[in-house]
Amino acid sequence: MFKGMKHIKLYIFRKIASRVKQKSRLQFVIINLPFAWCLLFFLLPTLLVLKISLAKCCMGLPPFSSLIQQTDLYFYNCCIYIGNYFALLTDSFYFSVVASSVFIAGCSTVICLVIGYAMAYEISRAPKRLHIILILLVVLPFATSFLVRVYSWMSLLNTHGIINALLQKMHIIKLPLHLLDNNYAVCLGIVYCYLPFMVLPIYAALEKIDTSYIEASFDLGASKWNSFWWITFPLSMPGVLAGCSLVFVPALGEFVIPELLGGSRTMTVGQTIWCEFFNNRDWPLACAIAVFMMFSFIFYVFLSKFIKNSSSATHVDRF
Amino acid sequence: MPLPSMKRNIEPWQDPTAEPYIQIESISKKYAFVEAVRNVSLSIYKGELFSLLGGSGCGKSSLLRVLAGFEKPTSGRIIIDSIDITNLPPYERPVNMMFQSYALFPHMTVYQNIAFGLKQESLLKNVIHDRVMESLDLIQLSSYAERMPNELSGGQKQRVALARSLVKRPKLLLLDEPMTALDKRLREQTQFELVNIQERVGITFILVTHDQEEAMTMSTRMAIMEEGRIRQIGAPHDIYEFPNSRFVAEFIGSMNIFDGVVVEDEYDHVLIDSPEANCLIYATHVGATPVGSNVSVAIRPEKVMMSQTPPAGSRNCTKGIVREIAYLGDISIYYVELSSGIRVQSSLPNLLRLSERNVTWDDEVYLFWRAENGILLTA
What we know:
The complex is a heterodimer.
Chain A: H1 2-53, E1 68-72, E2 75-78, H2 83-90, H3 92-125, H4 128-139, H5 146-157, H6 162-169, H7 183-208, H8 211-219, H9 224-235, H10 237-253, H11 256-262, H12 269-279, H13 283-314
Antiparallel strand pairs in A: 1-2
Helix pairs in contact in A: 1-13, 2-3, 2-13, 3-7, 3-10, 5-11, 7-10, 7-11, 8-9, 12-13
Chain B: E1 22-30, E2 35-44, E3 49-53, H1 60-68, E4 75-80, E5 83-84, E6 95-98, H2 110-120, H3 125-138, H4 154-166, E7 172-176, H5 184-201, E8 204-209, H6 212-218, E9 221-226, E10 229-234, H7 236-241, H8 246-251, E11 256-265, E12 270-274, E13 279-283, E14 294-299, E15 305-307, E16 317-327, E17 331-338, E18 343-349, E19 364-368, E20 375-377
Parallel strand pairs in B: 3-8, 3-9, 6-7, 7-8
Antiparallel strand pairs in B: 1-2, 1-4, 4-5, 9-10, 11-12, 11-14, 12-13, 14-20, 15-19, 16-17, 16-19, 17-18
Helix pairs in contact in B: 2-3, 2-4, 3-4
């Protein structure tokens, strides 16, 4: 009797196991296909960049020394040149480039956050049937090319551009203002281009907040501002964090906007990489900057994750 | 919380000299297409636990939201403790509400949730701490102060929500379906707990519910609402024993109702000829019921007695055939079909075991009731 039961149990177990196996095979394919894609077209090129960053710049084609050099018939040397990284860390020029990039990206993110939050807040409070239209209006600029939109800012901000012409016509100014070719113009361009990336996640987060929380805070005596600051804002934090990352990260590596609106006075990481790559033909140094930025990001992500984990583990009062 | 030192006046609404604490004066609330609350007036006394009872869409929740200040009434006034609060925003009213979903702030601990309302009054930190701990003590969750709301069970959440709304010591506490999210056993237990807490803190409660058992168990008085109007106000036993209309009679508990015509209208009784009941019904007087007017007589199933032999006297007595028997454990409900075709419910306590019962399906039985147990309904 007992043995029979055991057999049945074993049979059922095997049946389930085979089911699981079938399912897991499909899972395996689904998970690994994009993974293989990333491996081939992302990880491999990244490794190549890493490899080039450890080479020495030289004349010729390709314009860098090879990693593995043959010195004798049977003797190969693996040559790693760390001069590029050394230059990055010692030359104050690169430090100032990174600093100004971080500053521009940071300022743009903060401005985006303020404007984007206000927009998202008002959209989420608008009548329900208007939501889709308002959201559509936010993303509508994406219908035109990114480059065209940045170019049109050039024609707006030019010394002979529309804004200056208008101000001169209205006799507010005599001489045209230098609106283009400075950090403000770059900030403006970034804020304009990346605003939807801030609005959408914040809107999604605000939309999810149950109105009864807001009502409860009013009921407990919170004024409109207190209710916003202590309830709505903290509850929309996931959206704020997502929006800030979506703006800050691409803004930091942005090349087109500073190139077109910043002129020669601003130097961002993106521009420097371009400059080293095409003007100086110093591929290894350009790659070293790219690798450096990438590892800074990875470090930042791990750091923020670590902070988040430790704060949620101890219920630290963040707000 | 301090115990109210004065002896509780059990039924202040019976006392003509008592001043109502909360006066709701002909409140109406119209939305774009519906009139949710129609000319509702209520006087509620200090320390009452008043229930608004009604089906869904009867306007009870709208009335509650008007009281809390989330909705502006279209007309009418609300006076609490002789202060007109009709035009005050919710954050300036001496009113707190316990939400149906509890609405505990998910990013704050239990302690911070309860302290939130006190922080808005910019009280001193140690005062806030004392009052939060006091109310945590009241709901017996002192050791849960640092928990997050998602780490609590349904019953615990409900108690925290109660503590959060009580800690500000409001003049009026509104409870929106406070028990709906709890399972039956917990609900029954919580009902008494809530009443005990209410008696200890001495705050006036208005409770909205669709559960009549809940309203009957907990409230001092209740109002039955239908389509934005109040149909009857009274203590639970008054409403159960003396419903003023057919609607209320059918809404609260189960009821047998016979339509009929008044054939005799004397100073001490009325005689009604009811073809439905197939007999003459002898009932006590209410208001004006001239001979020939159409009335209804309502009798509670537990007041309908049943026997297999004819009782003495022929009034208030009819006979029928047992069609269904619902066995509920403590009582059984017999569905008896009269010759007119209508079914009458009679509930009897199961004093004997099921197998020893002598009445069974398809038996012919006599049904009778005492004259004072028949409720004469003119509306």
